[in-house]
Structure formats: structure tokens, C-alpha cells
Recover the amino acids of this structure.
């Protein structure tokens, strides 16, 4: 029992977004010790991550009658903030998607980190992807960022520019109302080198720069990459690295290696 409790607590502390953890802990501290676990669970703010929500419920039921809800709230919040301080000081966090080994090391899912960062973004989001497909939840997060006044840019691959090395234009994964609010860039065919068979290079990079943090990964923005493929990545919070990465893409744009996409012009 306690092994499962410790595993659930570790996952919650390490994978839960700070704003969600703080809200949950505040709600826990508002309850008297004799309030039943079921009533406490019903009062908590929504967690839009079914796995973490289940783990939190298991934690609450495991400690019912053993410690006060106030003590549990302070314990989870303190553990999370200490973990965040440690993670920030290290600058790099391992991300993954795909199968989990039984002795899994602490790592968050690539898609969940993207959703969390975009949902918390305040200034700027830049997405770079080769392919995009079936990404409804990502579109929802991006639409929320736009409503908050966040600048949104994308660097995407197109079927024509890659000379059919991509079968579905990445831009088609995004609804029309979102496209109208986003600046999209592409890599023109004439600016690409060709291999011995005459095929042009591909815009194969995958990543995101969101305010002062960057995600670099093998995952495209697709349902397969987020839920079925085995993918690896990293969340990087080193200021110099993020600055240089953003500058690299800004200079590709300013030097006209990447051009602005204007609707159906390609």
C-alpha cells in the first residue's frame, strides 16, 4: 500500500503543474480533519490530466484518518516547490512518450509538458514541426494563449515544398480561425540542398520555445507521437540556451531562409 502511495505522491509532485498543485493544496487545507475523503475529493479543482487526478484521489484515500487534510496540503505543496527549485537549478528535464518500464525514472510526458507550458504562456510561443495531425487538445491550448494576447508563431513543413516527402501539410491540423491569428513560416524548396537522388532536404526539426523555456524532442505534433510512438525529449530552462535557440530561428526568418506563409500561396 505504502509503496503505491509513495509512487503516486512522487508522480503528483514531479508532474503536476505548479498552478494546479497550489490550488489543490489550498483546497485541502480548507477542510477540517473529520471531513470524509470523498467529500474532500469532490471539492478539489479540476485536474485536466486523468492519470494525475486518479493518483491524487488515491493519495487522499490512503491518508484518510492518519493525518489532517491541512497537513497533507502543506506536505504536497512543500514537496512540489522543493522539486521545482531542484529542477530549475538543474536546467534540463527528461521528457518521454511511449511505453513505460516498471522501474521508470522520473519523467513527464512530452505532450503534457507542451499543454502545460502553452497554457501558462504569457508572451511568446514558437512551434517547429515536420508533421501535425489530430491535435485537438493542443489547438485548444493555443487558442487560449491567443485570447491572452500571446504572440504565436509556427515553422512548419509542407507537402509541396518537401516534394511529397510529407503527405499531409502540417498547417491543415490547425483550424482556420487559429491559422488567421498565427504567423506561419516555411522553408522554400529553392533554398534547400538536394541529395544524390535529387530529393530536397526536409524541415525535420521538432521543438517549441515558450517564453523562457524550450522543448526539444523527437516527437511531431501528432496523435501517434504523443500516445503511441516511443519518443524522447527535454525541457530546457537555461536562459542562454533558450536565447540562442530563439535567435537561431529569428535569424533564419530575417535572412529569408524561412518565409512567411500567406494562406494558399504554396
Amino acid at each position: 500500500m505504502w509503496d503505491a502511495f509513495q509512487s503516486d505522491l512522487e508522480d503528483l509532485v514531479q508532474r503536476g503543474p505548479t498552478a494546479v498543485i497550489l490550488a489543490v493544496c489550498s483546497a485541502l487545507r480548507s477542510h477540517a480533519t473529520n471531513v470524509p475523503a470523498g467529500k474532500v475529493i469532490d471539492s478539489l479543482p479540476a485536474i485536466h490530466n486523468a492519470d494525475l487526478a486518479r493518483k491524487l484521489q488515491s493519495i487522499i484515500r490512503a491518508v484518510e484518518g492518519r493525518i489532517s487534510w491541512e497537513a497533507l496540503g502543506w506536505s504536497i505543496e512543500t514537496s512540489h516547490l522543493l522539486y521545482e527549485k531542484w529542477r530549475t537549478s538543474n536546467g534540463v528535464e527528461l521528457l518521454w512518450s511511449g511505453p513505460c518500464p516498471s522501474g521508470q525514472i522520473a519523467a513527464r510526458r512530452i505532450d503534457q509538458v507542451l499543454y502545460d507550458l502553452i497554457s501558462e504562456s504569457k508572451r511568446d510561443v514558437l512551434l517547429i514541426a515536420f508533421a501535425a495531425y489530430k491535435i485537438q487538445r493542443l489547438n485548444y491550448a493555443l487558442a487560449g494563449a491567443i485570447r491572452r494576447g500571446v504572440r504565436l508563431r509556427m515553422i512548419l513543413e509542407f507537402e509541396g515544398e518537401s516534394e511529397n516527402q510529407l503527405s499531409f501539410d502540417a498547417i491543415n491540423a490547425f483550424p482556420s480561425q487559429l491559422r488567421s491569428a498565427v504567423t506561419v513560416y516555411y522553408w522554400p524548396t529553392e533554398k534547400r540542398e538536394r541529395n544524390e537522388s535529387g530529393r530536397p532536404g526536409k524541415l525535420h526539426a521538432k521543438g517549441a520555445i515558450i517564453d523562457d523555456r524550450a522543448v526539444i524532442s523527437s516527437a511531431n505534433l501528432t496523435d501517434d507521437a504523443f500516445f503511441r510512438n516511443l519518443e524522447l525529449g527535454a525541457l530546457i530552462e537555461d536562459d542562454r540556451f533558450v536565447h540562442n535557440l530563439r535567435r537561431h530561428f529569428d535569424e533564419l526568418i530575417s535572412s529569408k531562409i524561412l518565409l512567411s506563409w500567406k494562406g494558399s500561396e504554396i
